[in-house]
Design a protein that fits this description.
- The chain is mainly β and about 500 residues long.
- Helices cover about 0% and strands about 50% of the residues.
- The chain has two domains: about 210 residues, Jelly Rolls, CATH 2.60.120.200; about 280 residues, Neuraminidase (6 Propeller).
- The strands form nine sheets. Strands 1, 4, 5, 9, 14, 15, 16 and 18 form an eight-stranded mixed beta sheet that branches. A seven-stranded antiparallel beta sheet has the order 3-8-17-10-11-12-13, with no helix packed on it.
- The radius of gyration is 24 Å and the shape is elongated.
Length: about 500
């Protein structure tokens, strides 16, 4: 469009976090500006911008003008909230239309105050593709910048960690390129938000932001399995990468299964299992009887007639043992693994409902085992010096997919259902891959990839992770989700029956 008063729409799909005393809280409860507190035209631009919020789609539409965001003063449209301490801001972005000025800008900006000359740090994406981390050190001082090698990204992340700022950008599906900024001393209490600047006082610009997240990370000294932060249940369309937050919790929630013809999600929290209904938005607890110390390794059989759980059995020195039960919770769980043989973590039930496969500590190490449900007889399926984990049957029962660090890094593997013919499926060193989940149509694997800096054989809480998608036959994985999570995000089979949607958990304090 070449009109003098150009309109470019900024649609933003957002999720953030407010204080919450309820265990589970439905999304869409926020005010006029969603997770943000206010909107303002910074610097009093000639043409005023606007913001609207769609609570059902969790999308924002923002229009903004302004002569520039540079030198010693700024003009732009700002949608913001207030934050303290460390944080992570992330969004998928794109301009709509050709625009008027190549220096039009959108992105995230962190400011000390709402004056046009405020000190700030700004993750800026320009209309011509220029990507830079811009900053003003003092009120009214000149704007400086660090230019990224990334051009025209559509995923933008701005993080503050211990006073250092990190701008990470990527074209959706690719790894991040990161720029680091030290020695810009903004206040601990700052304003953070999205902005649009047209770089032309006579023009209104618009663009689209989706999958926006405002995250408060765990404290640097948090103790795993003792200190927890909040959680959000999300779903994603794997074809588009579009995400929607269903509800958040002050508790740690983990490991969603998509069940009951895609009408419900089952997840665990604090040792119990719960059901979430899409239709009613209500959450109910599943009766697991004496099994009240369940970890996040619960699975359903393919026909959903059996629910398997891993419960820490107090009669067996608190070891994780495997039980099967009626998914409706109207009968007591039945123990399948034996006492005194070592810990067992359930991962999958065979399509014919005759066998379960699990990770077991036997002979002083962890391997993948199977057990015949009728007889209780165990069979060892893998035998390596390191860790084999995350096993899952293919829908036709011919294969078992799993993750293993037998070749030095944690990668995905596939073997025949009897444990023969193991084949390595991923092999890059940029990630540590865990928990392969096969789509119901058998075509795709979705899995979580941890950063390479985590320990050997670990899958910890509260990390910068990605969800990746690849063919069930192998090939080059594609990133479909950038997230803050890890342990509990997607430990169990999480596909909808349509093979187009997944469920997973992300975290924020």
């Amino acid at each position: 469009m070449k009109k003098t008063l150009l309109m470019v729409v900024l649609t933003v799909s957002l999720l953030g976090f407010k204080s919450n005393t309820k265990p589970f809280e439905k999304m869409g409860i926020y005010g006029k500006y969603g997770i943000f507190d206010h909107q303002i035209n910074i610097g009093d631009p000639t043409i005023k911008g606007t913001v609207s919020y769609d609570s059902e789609s969790q999308e924002y539409t923002i229009q903004g003008s302004g002569f520039n965001m540079w030198a010693n003063n700024d003009e732009f449209q700002y949608l913001y909230t207030s934050m303290q301490g460390d944080f992570i801001l992330r969004a998928r972005v794109r301009f709509i239309g050709e625009g008027v000025d190549p220096h039009r800008k959108i992105g995230w900006i962190v400011r000390n105050n709402l004056r046009g000359d405020s000190p700030h740090v700004n993750a800026s994406i320009h209309g011509d593709g220029l990507t830079s981390l811009q900053y003003r050190r003092a009120p009214g001082s000149e704007t400086e910048q660090i230019v990224s090698t990334d051009e025209a990204p559509d995923v933008v992340q701005l993080e503050r960690r211990a006073g250092t700022y990190y701008m990470s950008t990527a074209k959706f599906g690719q790894p991040f390129t990161t720029v680091e900024l030290k020695d810009v001393n903004l206040r601990n209490e700052v304003f953070v938000g999205l902005y649009v600047c047209s770089h032309n006082p006579e023009v209104i610009e618009k663009a689209v932001f989706s999958n926006v997240r405002i995250i408060k990370p765990a404290a640097p000294d948090f103790q795993p399995y003792r200190d927890y932060i909040g959680s959000t249940m999300e779903i994603m369309n794997v074809e588009t990468g579009n995400r929607k937050a269903l509800f958040n919790s002050a508790h740690s929630i983990q490991a969603p299964n998509w069940v009951n013809q895609d009408k419900e999600l089952v997840f665990n929290s604090n040792g119990f299992l719960y059901r979430y209904s899409f239709e009613s938005d209500e959450i109910s607890q599943i009766n697991t009887g004496f099994a009240v110390n369940n970890n996040n390794d619960h699975v359903f059989s393919f026909d959903e007639t059996i629910l398997g759980i891993s419960n820490h059995n107090q009669d067996d020195s608190g070891r994780s043992s495997i039980y099967l039960m009626n998914p409706q919770g109207d009968s007591l769980p039945k123990k399948i693994t034996k006492d005194g043989v070592g810990v067992s973590y359930l991962h999958s039930i065979s399509p014919d409902n005759k066998r379960i496969i699990f990770t077991a500590e036997r002979k002083g190490k962890f391997d993948i085992y199977g057990v015949d449900i009728a007889s209780g007889e165990e069979i060892q399926l893998t035998d390596t010096k390191d860790l084999d984990d995350g096993s899952e049957y293919s829908p036709d029962g011919k294969y078992i997919y799993f993750n293993s660090n037998r070749t030095g890094n944690m990668h995905l593997w596939r073997m025949n259902a009897d444990g023969s013919n193991p084949v390595q499926l991923t092999n890059d060193t940029k990630y540590k891959d865990w928990f392969p989940h096969i789509s119901p149509d058998g075509k795709w694997i979705v899995f979580i990839s941890f950063p390479p800096t985590i320990g050997f054989g670990e899958h910890p809480f509260y990390q910068h992770c990605t969800l990746r998608l690849m063919s069930a036959e192998g090939g080059e994985p594609k990133i479909i989700g950038y997230l803050y999570g890890g342990q509990g995000t997607i430990n169990v089979p999480s596909w909808a029956k349509d093979s187009k949607h997944i469920a997973f958990v992300t975290n924020s304090d």
